[in-house]
C-alpha cells in the first residue's frame, strides 16, 4: 500500500470501502477489549503473588527493633527507607515511605503547598491570586488533573526527544505565578522518552522567580525496562543540591508496577530540609502508614539488585506485548505515512500521533468496535489536544492474543479516520 | 488515710515526707514505662497475627469478580463495604473503605472542605474569613490538631455524662462561622462516655446557621467493650436522615484496634449525596486503596458477629489492665478525695481529673520517675486545660505487671502534687 496522500480519490474510496467491510466484521465479533490504562496484566500479578507467603514467622514482625504491626514511624520503616534509597540512589533519611499510592503522595505534596505552603513559600498557595503549573505534553492525565483540581492554570510545555522543551521552561519560570512542573524523567508517560543529561542539568539549574518553585519528579518507571539492559539514572536530589537548589525537587516512586498495583508501597524523596517541613505538616494527618506491607516489600525485594532481577521477569511478559504493538504499527500503518510513534524500551505506553484532527474520530470508531482506549486529548492539559492527534496505547493489561485483536481494530480505525479526513 | 483536705499541716508534712521517700525509691529503680497513647499491647497484636496466613489461595485474589491485586474500585471492595455496613448498621453504598488509617480519612474530609468545600458549602473553607470548630473536651488531641492545622478557631464544649453539653452546642451553631463538631459517640476519648439517646437526638436535630455544618462522628470504639456485653449503638446516618439532615454527618471507623493498629482498614460512611460529592473530589487523588488488605480483613472478620467474637478475646486482654488501673485508683486515691475518674466499660482510656492546678506537676513527676503519659492539657483545644486537671491514662500498651508499677508511680505523683498544692 502506498502513502495515503499519494492515493487518487478513486483509490481512497476503494480503500475506504474495503476497510469499512473489515470494520463491520470486527465489530460483529462483539469483543470487549481494554487498552485504556497502564494496568499490569494478570500474568504480572501472578508473578509476584508469592509475596503473600511472607510474614509467617514472628521474627518478621520486627524490623530494626520496631514492631511493624503497631502504630508509629510516620515516615516509614527504616529498612523500607533504605530499600527505596538504594533504588533511587539517594540517602535513606531523604526518603519518606507511605502507603500504596504515589499518586496520593503527589496529591498530598501539592495539597500541602495549597493549604500550608512549602518550605520556601511566602504564603499557602490558596492565598495566591494565581498559581500556574507547567505541564510537559503529551503527559500523564492524572498529573494534570491534580494541579487542575486546585484551580491552577495549566501551561503546556512541548515535549522533545530529550524531555520537556527547556527553552520554554526557562522562559516560563520567569513568571512568579509559575509554581512548578510535572516531570516523568524515565520512560515518560506516554512517550517513553528518557530525559537527556542536558535536560536534567538545565532543570536543576533553573532560577525560577517563585522561591517555592517545585519540580514534581515522578520516577514511576525508574527500573521498568522491558527491552535491553537497565538504564541508570542520576539522583535528582544530588543534581539539584549540586546546582545550589536542594529544596526545589520532590521525587516519587512506587512498587505499583514492581509488585502489585493495588497493594504496593510508594515513597517520596526530598532534601532533609524539605523532609523536616513535611514531617511538621504531615504530623496532624498521619500516625503511620501500613508498615506491615512495607516490611513485606523489604523482605520480598531486598535491594536494588534483586528488584532489577524481578523486573527482568516483568520484561519477559511486557516485552512481547510492546513488540506486538510496534510490529503491527510498523506493518499496518508505517507504509501509509499517516501517523508517527516511538518504539519505547521501558515504561507502560506507546504514544501514537495520528493524522492531526483524527484522534477523537479514531477512538470513537474503536469504541464502536468494542476497544476501549485512553480518551483522546487525555495526554494534554484540560484533556484538550490542540492537534487532536495524540493517542496513548496501553498494552499491558490484555493477554497478547487479545492485544493483537485490539491492535487490528485500532489500525483499521486509524486508517478509516485518516481517509475520512483526506476525503472519500 | 483521711481525705487530704482534713489533714493538719503537720500530718500533710509527714505524708509528704513519706511519699518523697517512696518517690525516690521508685525513681531509683530506673524504669521506663509508657502509658502515653492508646496503642494495643503485643498480646493483642499476636492475637490477630494469623491474619497474615490468609491470601494463600488464588481464589482469594478475586472478590465479586474483582482482582483485588490490581488498580480500581476507588471506594473500596464491595465486600469490605458490606462488612463495615454490617458493623455500623448503615448501607454498603454509604461506606467508603480506604487505607490503614481513619485519622487520614478524617483529615481528608476536613482538607476537602478546606480546599474544595463540602456538598452544601457556599465556598471552600479556605475562602472563609473565619472557621470555628466545636471541640467537646476532654477530647482527643489528634482531632483538635486536625482542625487547628487548618487555622480553625477551636471552641471548647464541656462534656457531660451523656456526651457534649447540648445546650452549649445548640447555642454555638447559631454562629454561621461554626462549621462542625468532633464527636466520639461510644466510649469517648478519653472519658469512656457513651452518648445518650437524648444527646444523639439533639445532635441530629441541630439547625446550624452554616449550611455545611459537619458532624465528625468518630466511631473509633464502636465494638470495643472490655467489660460486659456489647452495647448496641444507633446508625447515625439514619438518625440524621430521619431528622431531615442526611448530609450533616460523616462517620468514621477502623479495624486499628480490632486487627492491627499499623495495618488495619479504615472507612467513612455518609449519605449517598455526600458519597457522590466525595467521589468527585477524591477522584484526582486516589486510584484505589490497598484492596488486598481489605480482602484480608473481609476473609478474617467475615461479619459483625465474628468481629464481636474477636472483640471478646481483646476484652480478655484489656479487661484486667483497666481493672488494675481502676482498682489501684480506688484503693490509693479515692480515700484522699483529691481526684475523680470514671470506670469505663470500653474504649482505650481512663480519664483522670487530678486536683485542679496539679496535672502538669503530676506528669512532670511521673516523667522524672520514668513513666511517660499523654502530656497534660492534651485533651483540651490548643493543649491547654484551663483547670490543669485532666490526665489521660492509656493502659493498653504495657503488660499488667508493668502497668501496676506505672500506676504505683502515678499514684505517688498525684499525691505529691496534691500535697504541694495544699501546702506542705
Question: In terms of topology, how is this protein built?
Answer:
The structure is a homodimer.
Chain A lengths: L8 H20 L4 E3 L6 H7 L13 E2 L2 E2 L10 H11 L6 E3 L4 H14 L16 E6 L3 H9 L3 E8 L2 E2 L1 H7 L5 E6 L13 H8 L9 E5 L17 H7 L6 E6 L11 E4 L2 H11 L8 H11 L2 H29 L7 E2 L8 E4 L5 H10 L2 E3 L16 E4 L6 H23 L2
Parallel strand pairs in A: 1-14, 5-6, 5-8, 8-9, 9-10
Antiparallel strand pairs in A: 2-3, 4-11, 6-7, 10-11, 12-13, 13-15
Note down, in words, how this protein is organized.
With 424 residues, the first copy, chain A, is α/β, with parallel strands linked by helices. Helices cover 39% and strands 14% of the residues of chain A. Chain A has an 8-stranded mixed sheet, sandwiched between helices. In chain A, strand 5 (132-137), helix 5 and strand 6 (153-160) form a beta-alpha-beta unit. Chain A is globular and about 75 Å long. Chain A starts with 8 loop residues before the first helix and ends with a helix. The interface between A and B is large, with 55 and 55 residues.
Amino acid at each position: 500500500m502506498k502513502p495515503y496522500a499519494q492515493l487518487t480519490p478513486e483509490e481512497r474510496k476503494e480503500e475506504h470501502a474495503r476497510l469499512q467491510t473489515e470494520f463491520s466484521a470486527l465489530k460483529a465479533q462483539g469483543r470487549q477489549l481494554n487498552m485504556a490504562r497502564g494496568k499490569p496484566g494478570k500474568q504480572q500479578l501472578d508473578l509476584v503473588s508469592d509475596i503473600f507467603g511472607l510474614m509467617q514467622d514472628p521474627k518478621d514482625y520486627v524490623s530494626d527493633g520496631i514492631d511493624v504491626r503497631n502504630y508509629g514511624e510516620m515516615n516509614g520503616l527504616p529498612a523500607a527507607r533504605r530499600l527505596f534509597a538504594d533504588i533511587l540512589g539517594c540517602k535513606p533519611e531523604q526518603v519518606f515511605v507511605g502507603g500504596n499510592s504515589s499518586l496520593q503522595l503527589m496529591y498530598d505534596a501539592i495539597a500541602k503547598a495549597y493549604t500550608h505552603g512549602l518550605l520556601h513559600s511566602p504564603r499557602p498557595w490558596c492565598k495566591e491570586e494565581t498559581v500556574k503549573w507547567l505541564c510537559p505534553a503529551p503527559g500523564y492525565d492524572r498529573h494534570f488533573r491534580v494541579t487542575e483540581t486546585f484551580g491552577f492554570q495549566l501551561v503546556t510545555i512541548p515535549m522533545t526527544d530529550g524531555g520537556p522543551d527547556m527553552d520554554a521552561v526557562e522562559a516560563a519560570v520567569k513568571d512568579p505565578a509559575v509554581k512548578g512542573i510535572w516531570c516523568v524523567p524515565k520512560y515518560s508517560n506516554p512517550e517513553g522518552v528518557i530525559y537527556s543529561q542536558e535536560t536534567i542539568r538545565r532543570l536543576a539549574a533553573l532560577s525560577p522567580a517563585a522561591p517555592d518553585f517545585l519540580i514534581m519528579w515522578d520516577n514511576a518507571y525508574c527500573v521498568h525496562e522491558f527491552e535491553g539492559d537497565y538504564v541508570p539514572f542520576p539522583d535528582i536530589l544530588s543534581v539539584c543540591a549540586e546546582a545550589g537548589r536542594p529544596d526545589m525537587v520532590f521525587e516519587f516512586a512506587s512498587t505499583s508496577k514492581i509488585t502489585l498495583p493495588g497493594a504496593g508501597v510508594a515513597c517520596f524523596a526530598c532534601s532533609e530540609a524539605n523532609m523536616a517541613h513535611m514531617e511538621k505538616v504531615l504530623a496532624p494527618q498521619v500516625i503511620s502508614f501500613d508498615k506491615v506491607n512495607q516490611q513485606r516489600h523489604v523482605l520480598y525485594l531486598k535491594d536494588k539488585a534483586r528488584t532489577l532481577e524481578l523486573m527482568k521477569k516483568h520484561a519477559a511478559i511486557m516485552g512481547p506485548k510492546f513488540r506486538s504493538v510496534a510490529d503491527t504499527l510498523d506493518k499496518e500503518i508505517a507504509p501509509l505515512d499517516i501517523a508517527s510513534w516511538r518504539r519505547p524500551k521501558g515504561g507502560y505506553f506507546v504514544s501514537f500521533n495520528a493524522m492531526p484532527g483524527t484522534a477523537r474520530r479514531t477512538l470513537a470508531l474503536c469504541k464502536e468496535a468494542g476497544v476501549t482506549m485512553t480518551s483522546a486529548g487525555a495526554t494534554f492539559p484540560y484533556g484538550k489536544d490542540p492537534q487532536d492527534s495524540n493517542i496513548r496505547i496501553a498494552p499491558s493489561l490484555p493477554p497478547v492474543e487479545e492485544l493483537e485483536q485490539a491492535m487490528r481494530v485500532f489500525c483499521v480505525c486509524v486508517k478509516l479516520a485518516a481517509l475520512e479526513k483526506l476525503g472519500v
